Amino acid sequence: MHPLITYLNAQLPAMTELLTRIVSLESFSADKAGVDDVARLIAQELRSLNAEVTIFPQTTTGDHVLGVFNRGAGSPILMLLHMDTVHPRGSFAARYKIADGKMYGPGVFDMKASHVIALYAVQALQALGQMPRREIRTLFTSDEEIGSFTSEALIIEQARGAQLVMVMEPALADGRLKSSRRGVGNFTVVARGRASHAGGGHERGINAIQEMAHHILAIHALTDYQRGIATTVSEIQGGIAHNVVPDRCEIHVDARANTQADADWLTRQIYSLRPVLPGAQLEVSGKFERPPMECNAERLAIFERMKQIVAPILTLEHGPSGAGSDAAFTAPIAPTMDGLGAVGDGLHAADEHILLSSLVERAAMNALILQAW
Ligand SMILES: [Zn+2]
């Protein structure tokens, strides 16, 4: 058996216990106190591994935590993690359990198991005297699930100059790495008309909701599953009273694309919407906040090298992810691979869980990559 696997197998009870502690600290993105509790625990764990720890205090979201090993040595690797989850406080007690070799709990798969995997990858290398002489940055952010508005600049700063960015998001089914990510765009469309009485002044009104109805259908018609394009009008507001022709309607558009070319095309289509009703006005704002990460030749080369490095312990595969991640920010500036976290299922769902055995396997995998890259 590989020495990393032997060491980590012995650590599995401690890894399970640490993961339980992290999952019990519920950390919904909007719950700053909850995310900060996780940040404090992570900072403490990093310090116990002799990392140099920096806290980046935030006002509206949880604080970000950076742990650096071997500062200034060799060419740096960045491990990228997030501490927030999509689960509001109060779901831990009902959902947490260990059964059939799996741990269930809010955020356990996305991505608290990854915290344990990253920490124990370093611990295993230290314990076996195999820590590479290179800078290892571990960045734990607080707002990935809501678009990384406060962490984007820090992520880009830490990824710059890195020889590899290991995005510790959950793996695909069967442990496949995520070699491409869909881009995520957020757009707002506002239609303006003219208010009037719905009875007596009907002909003088310009109905903003009626105007928007045309655009809702036009936006949905852009969806093309074969091209990997999906558009969703996900929120709508308009109107003030039963008997008033509405003068304002606003929608939110969630847009997804697999390639930068399609993201640009979709952006152009949304910005080229024009008013249909005489006298109506239309305003469009927004953009692709997370550009697509494409599975290009560079990504395939990174995958092939990782596959070779980890061959002594497992056979690695890769595939596409339909969701976005912070890999979108690092892929344009540094070699990036995603999906290095745990194996499990039920992402963002009530039955979210991981395979406990994957804590050992994935920590060993990440340790090998840190060492050999
Ligand atoms: Zn995630």
From TrEMBL:
Q: Which residue intervals define the domain Peptidase M20 dimerisation in the entry?
A: 180-270
One GO term in the molecular function aspect is: metal ion binding
Active-site annotation = D84, E144
Q: Which UniProt keywords apply?
A: Hydrolase, Metal-binding
CDD domains in the record, alphabetically?
M20_CPDG2 (cd03885)
Q: Which domain of life is it from?
A: Bacteria
Annotated TM spans: none
- The answer, when asked if Plastid is one of the entry's keywords, is no
UniProt KW Hydrolase keyword: yes
Q: State what protein this is by name.
A: Peptidase M20
Q: Which organism is it from?
A: Candidatus Thermofonsia Clade 3 bacterium
